[in-house]
Specification:
Blueprint (H helix, E strand, L loop, with lengths): L1 H16 L3 H41 L4 H38 L2 H35 L10 H35 L3 H23 L8 H27 L2 H32 L2 H26 L5 H21 L1
Helix pairs in contact: 2-3, 2-5, 3-4, 4-5, 6-7, 6-9, 7-8, 8-9
């Protein structure tokens, strides 16, 4: 029985991948995007990581120039973590693209296009950061070789090309999936808006979780509390999905109460990130801190909106559609 359900699930997902020429192109471009951008970030990571290791070894063998280690180790360390974070994010984005196709989620499609557009500017800031560190290394670490290569420029060029392709495909899929939503739940505008609201609330939870990364520089007690809160986010994420899908008011209320404390915790962590970005000229960290807080606040707002709209009729529409599909399956199996 489980094998049959697995085959049915795989067949359903495959049918949605090959549904139209736009879904096929979207999946292929998503794979190409992940491979190209991850490769370029790995090249940057290799350069930055090697430079970081060389500065550390130089400080171990020759401590006569403390300005080099004290002034440039932290900026290079942050830059290396930035590369790791982006690599992890692009793996998630690949899953995010597939998930949008599997679930025909028009909100995710729009978000993917916006993320690609935003990363063009983030790529430009990466170029500025690397050049600033290169100049500072020449001043603080005479004789230390750290020359920016073309990987950052290739990264921006690849992103610009992908923005055009993904933007066009996202527009086409937005129209296609919007029509699919209409066919599933009918022409009731209020019901459609309710579905989009709940989809968006569910979308923001994993987006926030993937950006909710390591923060340091606070007292041990706050590190413990923040770590416990971060781990709890994963379990409350599952609770939120369950509550959104089943319109479970109790579960959604528990998530909202938890998220209020998580939001306060994250606000403090964002202050740490912003201070670190000012200290090390890590401008991308400043932007990421603001974006993360915005996503977490938006998650709370839309979770409250979704909770208030439970019982508005969406669940009945979806269950009615599921019942029709089950009846159709039974009739077809009897033929």
């Amino acid at each position: 029985m489980k094998i049959a359900n697995l085959k049915e699930d795989i067949g359903k997902k495959w049918s949605r991948i090959i549904a139209t020429k736009y879904t096929i192109c979207f999946v292929l471009v998503s794979i190409a995007q992940a491979l190209v951008l991850i490769y370029l970030q790995v090249r940057m990571l290799e350069r930055n990581g090697n430079s970081l290791l060389r500065i550390y070894k130089l400080n171990e063998t020759d401590q006569s120039n403390d300005n080099c280690f004290n002034g440039q180790f932290l900026p290079l360390y942050v830059l290396t973590l930035e590369n790791l974070m982006f690599i992890f994010f692009y793996f998630f984005q690949l899953y995010f693209c597939f998930n949008a196709i599997f679930h025909q989620n028009t909100i995710q499609i729009i978000t993917i296009a916006l993320i690609n557009f935003a990363f063009v500017f983030i790529g430009m800031m990466q170029v500025y950061e690397v050049r600033s560190i290169s100049i500072a290394l020449k001043e603080d670490c005479p004789g230390f070789e750290f020359e920016p290569d073309m990987n950052e420029m290739f990264f921006i060029l690849a992103l610009a090309i992908l923005v055009i392709f993904m933007g066009y495909l996202s527009f086409k899929l937005h129209r296609q999936f919007g029509w699919n939503i209409y066919k599933k739940i009918g022409g009731d505008v209020a019901i459609q808006n309710l579905l989009i609201m709940i989809l968006f609330a569910g979308l923001l939870i994993p987006v926030f979780y993937i950006l909710y990364q390591d923060r340091s520089g606070v007292e041990k007690f706050f590190i413990f509390v923040s770590t416990a809160m971060m781990i709890s986010v994963f379990f409350f994420e599952i609770l939120a999905y369950k509550s959104l899908n089943d319109e479970w008011s109790g579960g959604m209320l528990m998530f909202i109460c938890f998220w209020i404390f998580a939001l306060l915790n994250f606000a403090g962590l964002c202050v740490v990130v912003i201070n670190l970005s000012i200290e090390t000229k890590w401008y991308i960290g400043f932007i990421i801190g603001i974006i993360c807080f915005t996503f977490s606040l938006s998650t709370l707002i839309y979770a409250v909106f979704a909770y208030r709209n439970f019982g508005g009729g969406l669940k009945e529409y979806i269950n009615k559609n599921k019942d029709r599909q089950e009846v159709t399956k039974v009739l077809l199996s009897d033929v």
